[in-house]
Design goal:
Blueprint (H helix, E strand, L loop, with lengths): L2 H11 L4 E7 L8 H10 L5 E4 L10 H11 L5 H12 L7 E5 L1 H7 L1 H11 L3 E4 L8 H9 L3 E2 L2 E2 L5 H10 L4 E4 L12 H12 L6 E4 L5 H8 L4 E4 L1 H8 L5 H20 L1
Parallel strand pairs: 1-2, 1-9, 2-3, 3-4, 4-5, 6-7, 7-8, 8-9
Helix pairs in contact: 2-4, 2-12, 3-11, 4-6, 5-6, 6-7, 10-12, 11-12
Length: 267
């Protein structure tokens, strides 16, 4: 059983929802990422989403765009990100890690080489926001061969037909982007999330994660009542951006947020 499948099964048995924090690898410096990953697990993270820095992150708002810029100042590459995953695995063999990024770096490395290297490092899933399932067949074959889940995004504008196509190709979990626009945009409409998650569930038995617009313990708890996973990105990256010169304060601020979310979600 994959780490993702095992983690979701264990949480379901405890009647809990996964808490999935996102950070950009190497932000604000490559030396802090692995320790921060461990700290987030200690604070209640169930799955870690690790962003691959990219020069043109078109789906991101300014908060995560700037995180990519901070990481790229240190020339953090896809190979470096996989090295961080491998280092993390020396102390934690259980927490699932999902890589998130854009197709270009993976394509440049080569689908087979990437899939093999990611599996050897200890990655469990992959999200490529600019790779639709119609164009992902070659990569999906390689990922499946190396037991890595391909996680696709669904949006508020996704039709029933689109949901079925994506759910048929997805594995690990399905990621519902709860807002139109880029990361960090607008406010969460929980009623809309309830409706869409129900619609998605009619097409798949996979867990459904919800991200975008989750900023605090209250919004995390609201989504936890609906989804199998709560994904938190910009709220965490904001705290990193506010403390770039103080790794200890980054960990403190991020972990306080995650702990408050975990507590609220579990009530």
């Amino acid at each position: 059983m994959s780490r993702l499948k095992a983690r979701f099964a264990a949480l379901k048995a405890e009647n809990k929802t996964a808490l999935v924090p996102f950070v950009t690898a190497g932000d604000p410096h490559p030396s802090i990422t692995v320790n921060l990953m461990h700290d987030m697990v200690d604070a209640g993270a169930s799955v870690l989403e690790l962003g691959i820095p990219f020069s043109d992150p078109m789906a991101e708002g300014p908060v995560i765009q700037l995180a990519c810029e901070r990481a790229l100042k240190h020339n953090v590459s896809l190979t470096d990100v996989l090295g961080m995953v491998k280092e993390f695995r020396t102390r934690d063999a259980q927490t699932p890690i999902v890589l998130m990024g854009y197709t270009n770096p993976v394509e440049v490395m080569g689908y087979e080489k990437f899939s093999k290297a990611a599996a050897e490092a200890g990655a469990d899933g992959l999200i490529l926001v600019d790779l639709p399932p119609e164009e992902g067949a070659d990569l999906i074959v390689q990922l499946k061969a190396h037991k890595i889940d391909m996680i696709f995004l669904l949006a508020p504008t996704s039709t029933d037909e689109r949901m079925k196509i994506i759910c048929d190709q997805a594995s690990g979990f399905v990621y519902y982007v709860s807002l139109k626009g880029v990361t960090g945009a607008a406010n969460l409409d929980v009623d809309s999330v309830v409706e869409k998650v129900s619609q998605i569930r009619s097409h798949t038995s996979l867990p459904v994660g919800v991200g975008f617009g989750i900023r605090d313990a209250a919004s995390a708890a609201q989504v936890a009542g609906v989804a199998d996973a709560v994904v938190v990105g910009s709220a965490i990256v904001n705290r990193i951006a506010e403390n770039t010169d103080d790794p200890q304060k980054i960990s403190q601020q991020v972990c306080e947020l995650l702990s408050s979310m975990r507590e609220a979600m579990d009530k």
